[in-house]
Amino acid sequence: MAFLELKNIGKIYVSEGNVAVGIRGVNATFEKGEFVAITGASGSGKSTLLNVISGMDSYEEGELYIEGHPTSHYVQAEWEEYRKEYISFIFADYNILESFTVLQNVEMALMHIDDTKERKRRALELIDRVGLTPWLKHKGSKLSGGQKQRTVIARALAKDSPIILADEPTGNLDSETSKEIIALLKEVSQDKLLIVVTHNFDQVEQQATRHIRIFDGAVESDKEMGGEVIAPAMSETENEVTEKKELLLGHEDRKTRLGKMRTSWKNACILGKALLWSKPKLTIFLGIVMIVASLGIFLDCAMYGANMMEAVQKSTVFRKMDGRVVIAPQDGTEFTEKTIKQWGEETGAKKVITNDSLLETTQSYIYISTYNGSDYDDQGYEFIVVMDKDYGTPDVGHYPEKRGEVFLYLPLGAKTVINKNTEYDIIAGATVAGVKYFVDNRKTAEIMMTGETYDSLCGYMNESYKQASLIYENDSEAKAAVEVLRSKGLYASTTEVTRQRDIWELLEVLMTFVFAMFTFVLGIIMLVLLVNLITKKSIRSLRPDVAILRSMGIPTDVVKKSMYIRMMLTLIPGVLAIIVMQILMAVVPRMNRMFTFLTLGQYLLIIVALLAFVFLLTRKQIQNLFDESVRKTLRGGADK
Ligand code: ADP
Ligand code: MG
Q1: Is 18 in the pocket of ligand 1 (CB under 6 A)?
Q2: Contact, 113 vs 189, CB < 8 A?
Q3: Taking ligand 2, which is a single-atom ion, which protein residues have CB atoms under 5 Å away?
Q4: Per-residue model confidence as pLDDT tens digits over 302-318
Q5: Residues 6+ apart with CB under 8 A from 58
């Protein structure tokens, strides 16, 4: 049984209706230890032959046997496995990972070694063998052609595959370097099958053990040469062979599958990180774009998103107050304080508000003037009036105790104008007894007062007694009271129906909402386009690298995972920016005043959305990338 056998192999290229014969009727057998030189005119089919052997090109006719197994039925995954198992490929245009160091290039090919220390040790050994130790940390792009080709050879050795294919490996080198490279190839592939395509037969004549000439897609001659055939050493024990076969046949148990998963993620992490830092400028740029994007989303949400939410809040024009009943005399006359209190007592009200105009004007703008010792600072806040509530321990002062005292519940941003040493002068004679700050500045400020303060403030505002409110324990008690009060000849209703929605008011709210939404969505769309563009560009820039990684036989799933990891890593600055903003808002009152605060959940939502978005973009780009054939990408690269 031959190690590699080609039987009547034919390959036809069909492109845009044109049919070109790549190779036809090729018969040949190859053994380990051979050094086969292939020559022929340009376009005669040498590369095609090599590509077919490497499994990078399919063939339409004949059969390729590897260790006696036919391959014509192979699907892509099987070819990948085949390449991983058997093939190392060396091209004229080097195909090393330009942005990786020599060490990284070789380490990538040693992915099958689990222990990273051992991996490095092996890599150093191989680099030494090809004489590149002094250039260990040099990036591929900084190497000379000969050094690049040496790196590629070290990489091929790292893979330790039984077949090394070289397509004009010295095509871009001067004759001196070419000789060195050929000698090196011969030296390192003693027990392997080495097939070298060359247009310069002189260079290999000394070393080759066999010479195949191709003419017009077919084998013209196939001759033994003077080079010494070195019989392969028995490197594999019988055990190892069966182990390998079992792996190939899929006879692996759960444990090894899990182990493989872990290894593939670990390798993907190593590769992802290497890809990330292989292009530092691009990575920094990506990080900045992600910061811009996440801050953009943050600002967009803080400004227009908040406007939108506010509009929605306002659209429920009437604010519900549990257990409140509004009463008014039916004949348009005025109540007296006494009659109101009487109604309250008769219907079991918890609290009586003799004049509820403050309640009706809640969420109107109230100015607090604060005196900081030298001058006044005016700060307007929209307040909800609250009768009694527990805000926890006050940040400043105490809860209202006396007539005329109020308690403020304010956004943190107000802290810059109101502090411990400030004297307050608030709405007509009331004094501030205490303050509690909250962090979420989308909430409306609240002003809490005792019933007495309330009445005195209303008195000050000189409102008439045409309407009053009775507060009950809960809504159902309030509803019962409404029945009673109506039967006594009063206008009475629970709060849900006391105020009619005004069509203009609604229209205004609607317009605010539509405008805010429009701006909000526009902002998001622009950011999405930006991230889309940059993600696309950044992944496309890895096109040659990915093709090389694949041609090296690094499993597709490892490469794919590493791309995801790389993209996700670039998001870290953006996520950090949002976290920093969040902390700043909570710590610096000025920031809190400037931006509408989003809740933690909303921040998480932004981050998750960003992650999901970048993930989907990456997936799409990766799909595009992997839909192209390796050979096409590599050749595309060579054409440039
Ligand atoms: P060589 O390597 O000996 O110069 P190739 O194997 O590259 O020759 O090409 C053999 C023949 O196949 C040529 O006629 C070439 O035009 C054709 N060919 C090679 N690749 C393609 C392709 N991707 N599409 C169409 N024709 C191709
Ligand atoms: Mg060629």
Answers
A1: no
A2: no
A3: 47
A4: 778 777 777 776 655 44
A5: 11, 52
Q: How many CA atoms lie within 13 A of 115 on its CB side?
A: 4
Beta carbon of 41 within 6 Å of any ligand 1 atom: no
Q: Which of 12, 18, 38, 47 to mutate to test the pocket of ligand 1 (most atoms within 8 A of CB)?
A: 47
Q: What is the pLDDT of residue 250?
A: 47
Q: What is the pLDDT of residue 245?
A: 47
Strand partners, 435: 396, 408
Number of Cβ atoms within 10 Å of the Cβ of 417: 17
For CA atoms 530, 536, 539, 541, give the dihedral sign: negative
376 to 100, 261, 434, 589: CA distances (angstroms): 64, 68, 19, 19
DSSP secondary structure code for residue 227 in this structure? S
The tens digit of pLDDT for each residue in 534-589 reads 888 888 888 888 888 887 778 888 999 999 999 989 999 998 998 898 888 888 87
- pTM to 2 decimal places: 0.69
How do strand 445-449 and strand 423-426 relate by DSSP bridges?
unpaired
Judged against a pLDDT cut of 90, whether residue 215 lies above it is answered with yes
Are the C-beta atoms of 155 and 96 separated by less than 8 Å?
Answer: yes
> Are residues 554 and 81 in contact, defined by beta-carbon separation less than 8 angstroms?
no
For the chain, list the domains and their CATH numbers: 4-251 (3.40.50.300), 266-311+504-639 (no CATH), 324-494 (no CATH)
Beta bridge partners of 368: 379, 426
Residue 446 phi/psi, 5° resolution?
-125, 145
Contact 126, 175 (CB under 8 A): no
Tokens of 321: 């107050």
CA-angle at 192, arms to 190 and 195, nearest 5°: 105
The DSSP H or E segment spanning 163 is strand 163-167
Tokens 């001759």 belong to 223
Q: 429 with 460: CB under 8 angstroms? A: yes
Q: Which long-range contacts (CB under 8 A, 24 or more apart) does 602-607 make?
A: 602/301, 603/578, 606/294, 606/297, 606/298, 606/301, 606/578, 607/294, 607/575, 607/578
Contact 114, 263 (CB under 8 A): yes
Residues ≥6 apart with Cβ < 8 Å to 85: 161, 244, 248, 553
Radius of gyration of the chain (CA): 40
**C-alpha–C-alpha distance, residues 111 and 264, integer Å:** 9
- Residue having the nearest C-alpha atom to atom 26 of ligand 1: 13
Q: How far apart (Å, rounded) are the C-alpha atoms in residues 317 and 195?
A: 83
553 lines ligand 1 (CB under 6 A): no
Find the largest Cα–Cα distance for the chain.
126
Higher pLDDT, 488 or 249: 488
pLDDT of residue 249: 44
Q: Which two tokens stand for residue 553?
A: 């036989």
Question: Letter for the amino acid at 481?
Answer: A
Confidence at residue 513, expressed as pLDDT on a 0 to 100 scale = 84
Q: Whose CA is nearest to atom 13 of ligand 1?
A: 43
